[in-house]
Amino acid sequence: MNVLGIETSCDETGASVVRGAGDVVSNVVASSLAQHAPYGGIIPEIASRAQMEFICAVVREAMEKARLKAGEMDAIAVTQGPGLIGSLLVGLSFARALSLAWRVPLIGINHLQAHLYAAFIGSGISFPFTGLVVSGGHTSLYEVTGIGREKLVGSTRDDAAGEAFDKVAKILGLGYPGGPAIEAAARKGSSEAFRFRCDCGPGFDFSFSGIKTAVLYKARDLKKLYGRLSPATVADLTASFQSAVVEDLVGKACRLAQKSHSRLLAVGGGVAFNTALRSRLQEETRQRNIELRLAPKAYCLDNAAMVASLGVRLLEAGKSSKRACLDTLMG
């Protein structure tokens, strides 16, 4: 079964051809990140305009790399939300036009579910499992008992983890995107230099607004005291911040895996690219006897392979929609 995936939920424009649920034949991503960097965040209008420019070339390249023609495709899977509405409209409109021209089914894919199941690309899925999706816009914990049976147990009450990384990077003058900048700076610092914490009570919800503000106040106090932040101080601030966020994510995810008796934890999303998070997840799950499935780094950031792969699984499970609905997106 050959499925073309299209992903345009944010600033990336992705297209991928997947054969079965595990054989990624091609995976092409074009990003407008450089156009957003001067603003310190994603500008929706810039993102959607860039996607209109990229999408034809990206889909063509994905098909050429797969060495497949339109008549050899069995379905098209496209992200239909959540995401930036202008960006989603680009992908949905293009995918619907292709499905009509090629006369193949069009499957609408939930962006968070695609991240959730990205950990299983190239392998089978064992149910039940606990899922953690951690990205720039979402931080969510799920109990999953089957395809289409994902129960949301915890989510962020304010900033998502990736958003907090971006904002702290901006506070410390590290530029955008913040995730890679924080990770790079943190390697030179001490995670015990400052005491930060993520406080959201005893449940499974997350809150990263408070720790962001704590870093802001600490940086201001240090600047008043010393006149500037030295590279060593910035390194210590980033290491301490990153460690607190990682411990919160790892602790709650592992605790839910034990509470739900699933003994399997799957992790996906852009922040799952972070090496410190991946290392702590591996350490903690090993100690708690929990099986860990991390999305491969190639499929952590927004990409179309995870969209196409989930499309295949939905088709195989008989749970796919006949087409992605623009009316639902427009609300």
Automatic annotation (TrEMBL):
Protein's name according to its UniProt entry: tRNA N6-adenosine threonylcarbamoyltransferase
The primary site where this protein sits is cytoplasm
Q: Name one GO molecular function term.
A: iron ion binding
By sequence similarity, the record places it as follows:
Belongs to the KAE1 / TsaD family.
Task: Give the GO cellular component terms, alphabetically.
Answer: cytoplasm
**Pfam families listed in its UniProt record:** TsaD
Which CDD domains does the protein's record reference? ASKHA_NBD_TsaD_bac
Name the SUPFAM superfamilies on file: Actin-like ATPase domain
Q: How is the cofactor bound?
A: Binds 1 Fe(2+) ion per subunit.
For binding Fe cation, which residues are annotated in this chain's numbering? H111, H115, D302
Q: What does this protein do?
A: Required for the formation of a threonylcarbamoyl group on adenosine at position 37 (t(6)A37) in tRNAs that read codons beginning with adenine. Is involved in the transfer of the threonylcarbamoyl moiety of threonylcarbamoyl-AMP (TC-AMP) to the N6 group of A37, together with TsaE and TsaB. TsaD likely plays a direct catalytic role in this reaction.
In terms of PANTHER family, this protein maps to: TRNA N6-ADENOSINE THREONYLCARBAMOYLTRANSFERASE, TRNA N6-ADENOSINE THREONYLCARBAMOYLTRANSFERASE, MITOCHONDRIAL
Q: Where on this chain does substrate bind? A: V133, V134, S135, G136, G137, D166, G179, E183, N274
